[in-house]
Amino acid sequence: MAETLVEAIALLIRQIRLLQNAASQLAIGRKQSVRVIAIVGLFEKGKTWLINQLFGVNLPSGTLHETDGLSFLWIPKKRMLLIDSAGVQSPVSYCAQPTAGNEQSVDDALFDAKSTESFLFDMISRMASHMVFVVNSFTSLEQQYVEMLRRKYVARQVHKELIVVHNMLNVKDAEVAHQLFEKQVTTCYSGDLSTMGQLIFTAKKDKGPPVHHIGLCYESSPAGDAFNDQNRQYLLQSLEHRESETEMVLQDQLREHLSELLKMFVSTEIPEQAAGSERAFGIDFRPGSELTSSAEEQMPKSYVCGGVFSLQLDEGAEPKMRTRGVISPLGELIGYDATFEPNVNLYEETTDAGEVQRKILIECPGVAMEDIELDDESLSAGFQLAITKRAQIDEQAENIRKVDGWPFRQQQGRWERAFLVELTDGKFEDPVMELRQDGILEITMKKKKQKNGIARLGYKSDRVDPAAAPSESAASSWVPVSVQGQQQESPEQLGTAGV
Fold first, then answer.
1. pLDDT score, position 444
2. Which residues is 17 bridged to in the sheet?
3. Polar residues composition bias: which ranges (predicted)?
4. Which residues lie closer than 8 Å to 403 by C-beta, 6 or more apart?
5. Helix or strand or coil: residue 458?
6. Spatial distance between the Cα atoms of 46 and 59, rounded to a whole number of angstroms
7. Closest Cα to residue 126, out of 256, 307, 10, 264?
8. Pairing state of beta strands 440-446 and 356-363?
9. DSSP state letter for 412
10. Where are the alpha helices (DSSP H) in 242-375?
11. For residue 136, what pLDDT is reported?
């Protein structure tokens, strides 16, 4: 039995319990040096079997046993904290018992499962210093997940070990194992075969960490006897020596990553406020010692409650998933962003009269002029724009009923963006807005022409005599200007200069 279990996210109750095995020695609230290792992969590929083989434990595995949520297994002798999870693409139950006013449809069930998998996948990739991805035949879908992990590391500029274990559980012949490993790995990636053993390969790319591939075969077969013990030992040594231990408090790490990820997956709204006005939320943690005895009574057998993560919201606020799922006419599960995120195009054009204009086009159909706020005073160079998109249909109204086969697909929320003007771009006049009939918000800024002769450095106005010392009010209106070939100076040191 795994040491610790984090249940799947439950927005309805706004709490996530951290369950801990009653016999566990893991101190979730104490700082300790650990090496966090995640074992991930698609459903029923042998993740738990690999943990048992590597660390000599006896976790339940097989087709009738499935890991729920996230499980943490503490290996005290090796100072390793292993993360196991439900397999990606686990089957979804259509037999969910509907609660009052909350009937779960097939498309909701499918997309909820997909969102949960994505959430847990992101959570694991952030916590673990090593990622072990277990595959069987290494399909293109599994390749996509491995590449997605690698790109997450590239985007976040972190260097973590990524290992792919090829669990070739139907291969018993050594020669067949070599041929299959070559077909799935060495001919598909650029890299090097290891000199430390067979069926070991390191794929390398220009960006991001290398990806290590290790092959295992059917246990106790000729191929298994030839490769498995040596390759498992190579994998274990890699996990032990490639990364130094880091000090962490498990409950704090979970709370930090939950807070970061929930902001990506969930938005909150207050019904009494303007539609789509988002409110901040946070995650609070209460240790199990502070909970009431009734909470302990609800624990599964042989578990105790290590604590509860609670979603903290403003009064009256309701959490909503940012992305919702629908089934297309072709039967494809499609996710769309329920929050308002308009397409924006920014460019410059020259008119027939030779004027340069900077254009910003924002696609916002269904938005009225009173829902647009432009602030050109808060920023010294540029402006701040806010647009509120209101829902056109009140989905919760008693007189509104969804027609089968036509799910609601509407975006709403408040969108904000700062449009800055770089000093090298020159000066522009104040922005002018026009909300066109085609639902496009067009913002135009005309570029000011630079006068020949004297360049007045720092002054927003041209009416000050170059020889005159500026007043305090004039100095406060200065904006920085750079001149090629000269070192930029502060307004206190600089008045005007001839060019």
1. 95
2. 308
3. 484-493
4. none
5. coil
6. 12
7. 256
8. antiparallel
9. B
10. 250-265, 293-297
11. 86
**So where are the chain's domains?**
4-248, 340-446, 454-499
- Dihedral sign for Cα 5, 6, 12, 13, please: positive
Question: What is the rounded distance in angstroms from the CA atom of residue 485 to the CA atom of residue 37?
Answer: 54
CATH topology assigned to domain 4-248: Rossmann fold (3.40.50)
Q: Which residue has the tokens 């390969």?
A: 201
Q: Tell me which residues of the chain have a pLDDT lower than 50.
A: 1-12, 63-65, 91-94, 96-104, 272-277, 327, 329-331, 333, 453-499
- Residue labelled with tokens 């039967």: 331
Minimal CA–CA distance to 4: which of 305, 301, 416? 305
Number of helical (H) and strand (E) elements in the chain, helices listed first:
8, 26
The CATH classification of domain 340-446, taken from the options 2.60.40.10, 2.60.40.790, 3.40.50.620, 2.60.120.10? 2.60.40.790
Residue 375 DSSP SS3: strand
Neighbours of 232 (CB within 10 A): 16
Residue type, position 389, single letter: K
Cβ distance 233 to 200 under 8 Å? no
Cα-Cα-Cα-Cα torsion 270, 271, 274, 278, nearest 10 degrees, comes to 30
How far apart are the C-alpha atoms of 243 and 162, rounded to whole Å? Answer: 12
Q: Round to whole Å and give the CA distance between 346 and 276.
A: 25
pLDDT for the residue 69: 65
Q: What whole-number distance in Å separates Cα of residue 156 and Cα of residue 318?
A: 30
Beta bridge partners of 488: none
What's the pLDDT at 265?
73
**Regarding beta strands 211-217 and 191-193, do their DSSP bridges make them parallel or antiparallel, or are they unpaired?**
unpaired
Q: Residues 380, 418: contact at Cβ < 8 Å?
A: no
Which amino acid does the sequence have at 68? D
Given this model, what pLDDT does residue 195 score? Answer: 86
What does the alpha-carbon distance between residue 111 and residue 104 come to, in Å, rounded to a whole number?
11
Q: What CA dihedral angle connects 131, 134, 139 and 143, to 10 degrees?
A: 0
pLDDT at 373: 93
Lookup: tokens for 433: 């807005």
pLDDT at 298: 66
